[in-house]
Amino acid sequence: MRASRSPRAARPRGGDWPGCHVAHGAAPWILGLQDLQSAGFESEDLPDISIDPEDKVLSVFNSTEEERCYCLSLAAAARGRAPLHHSGASSKPTNSAKSSHRGSIKEIIAFVLVLPAKSVMDVCKLRGPAAKDVLTLELQSDIVTLQPPPPLLAGFSYGFPLAGGPFLCSQGHGGKLTHFAHPSTFYALDFDCPVGTAVLAMEDGTVTEVRQSDTVSGIDVRNFFKWNQVTVKQSDGTWAEYVHVEANSAQVGVGSQVRRGQVLARSGDVGFCPTAHLHVELHLSDEPKAPSVPFGFRTAQGEFRCEEGKWYAAEGECERGAAPEHAACVFFGQVRSCSVAKFGPSHEATSNAHP
User: Fold this and answer.
1) Residue 87 covered by a domain
2) C-alpha to C-alpha distance for 250 and 264, rounded to whole angstroms
């Protein structure tokens, strides 16, 4: 047993994104992180992922010369039994979340793990039914090499993409769940919102793509490759993507001319979604691997940019109100009002994956 498996007094972070446990390097809740040479793996032909059949430790190996991200998901244990034993040795169950894939609904636990070059991470110990026979464990994975972020450009600002609010910006630029690994998503914004919230065009333009047939949801890693979206080529020559929209909710079609503020679809939770949210990203071309560019929002009073962990509506940054129908919105020191508007009745990742 390696020294890196000694316990530490910390628990996985699961509150930010339900069911997801995130470790960018040596997070306090993992069992340990070591370079391969110190761990005794200097010359071995290593797998990407392993589960020790005796002590049930889940480990991931990065034998490359580059930083890599490992996204894993596995079925949670039976009710009443915590599926994982993390370094904190707590009796509380490790966080999981329901996930659907091809009509099957399961309790799933997901990991987003970033490892430096030539390193091994001991993540956790499996326990409960999953630990009885690790060879039959259902584990999904997606492994990518981290790419540098795209250039920080300025000057793009539009109308807000959701009706009502306020909405939590649950992931911002370089977000540690899914926005950090690819230039195509680095400057994307996620806004938590109830399923069925009206998704609005940020700018005048022409609809170039509508995907609305998928229904999978939750944190199964396979859901990275299933999503719905509406894409608009905007009047300034940029492409705006509105992702995770509800199945069969599009109010526009390919070729439709849209105006800023027009309803495009209803928000949803289709794809890899710890919570129901709208994912918005902006590109300078429609190439599949085109890097994302940062953008903000404008009102009659000026412009504002969104940061992860803060609440926003069309008027700007908001204080989270107890009553959703009336929240105080702060914009450059001014207090404005906003109201809710309802909309009626294991493999290597490819450019086809979407957060």
Assistant:
1) yes
2) 6
